[in-house]
Amino acid sequence: MIKCVILDDELLAISYLKLLCEQIDDVEVVKAFNDPKVFLSEIDTLDCNLCVLDIEMPGMTGLQVAELISGSKKIIFTTAYKEYAAEAFDLNVVDYVRKPIRKERLIQAFEKAKEQISTSRKKTFIEWNTNIGKTVILAEQIAYIKTSEIDSRDKDIILNDGTMIVLKNLNFKNLLEMLPAKDFAQVNKKEIISLSSIKVFTTNEIITTLPEGEHFLKLQIGEAYKSSLMELFGK
What we know:
five-stranded antiparallel β-sheet, 7 helices, elongated, Histidine kinase, kinase activity, DNA-binding, WalR-like
């Protein structure tokens, strides 16, 4: 099911887009906005998995809005101007639909979104053998993983809320294959970090958002992992 939010500064365009969406199976318009700032203030509280953003808007473009929500929602751009296509795809969006929007073209964009949402959902829920039995954990809730100091065959997993769970008898190679590759990186032989938990990084060190005493947890980057990390960060 596609649950979408629409952002367009023209009310007529919003009405037309909502009308098209109502004619497409498995698509629900959760809410529509004509002001980017109001959209940004509410988007994190809405139950949606896709944003349909107009690009050309006064005050803030759809491209700027997308940069602020990129990763948290799938995005389809709509615009009457073809010159934005390259910038749009640089943001790794689902699709770029030219105005005036045709129903058939919108269906095609929604099908792409469904496929991407389905793929990411499959990777999100992972069943682990842990110290509390078989446990299903949302990958997006994982902040940090390290080799257990008690038994090196086990891995300590730290969730975003600070909860720790022990993964039983699992090596890093198999662990990384289970995790979404775009969201996690191995830092050294004993540690994996969620990219969302990274505060600052240099060529030798990562400062995380995870508290450690009065400071934040720091991770040393192993020589064997530097090039892959820099590539992941686009450096």
